[in-house]
Predict the 3D structure of the following.
Amino acid sequence: MAKQIVRVAKLEFNAGQAKPGPELAGLGIVMPEFTKQFNDQTRDRGSEPVPVEITIYKDKSFTFKLFTAPAAYKLIQAAKIQKGSPNSKTTIAGTITVKQLQEIAEYKLVDLNTDNVKQAMKIIAGTAKNMGIAIEGWDDIEKLKADAIEAQKAEARAHAMEEKLAEEIKAASEHKEFVEAEVIKKPTESNEENGDK
């Protein structure tokens, strides 16, 4: 008879460095037992992040499945950058080669919904694009650079228009307050004059 599954949790730890903590505490498993098994199985993977899917059973036993490091991590590593672009439309954070793209695609193949390397390369290229990482020999680098410059200009224009609009709203608001203050002030002065007579 199959054991009853009570929960499936997806977490991520650096290879060989899992420790008992809040992420594991809520799962109801023996934390040191999991961390020892995880660390033993991932020790040869350097310090890369390792996604893991933990299946917890009613009797508090567990099994887990390890996955390859995230594509974003492998792309950052290949491009030799600290992080991806905060805005991939305006900033190219780095570049990789088609050979590097293929290596990452082959590495990730076991975890992707395809067994075709070319399809896997397209998937990883999509991730690279979202991160602002250009691929030499795959992307038109000069076009990407030109598009980024145009996007920067458009963003600057939009920002300038927003600032101008904010100033106009502020000026209109200050003018309205001044007019309202004048309207309140005048009847008061008039009443005082009537009172004197």
User: Anything to note?
Assistant: The chain has a mean pLDDT of 86.
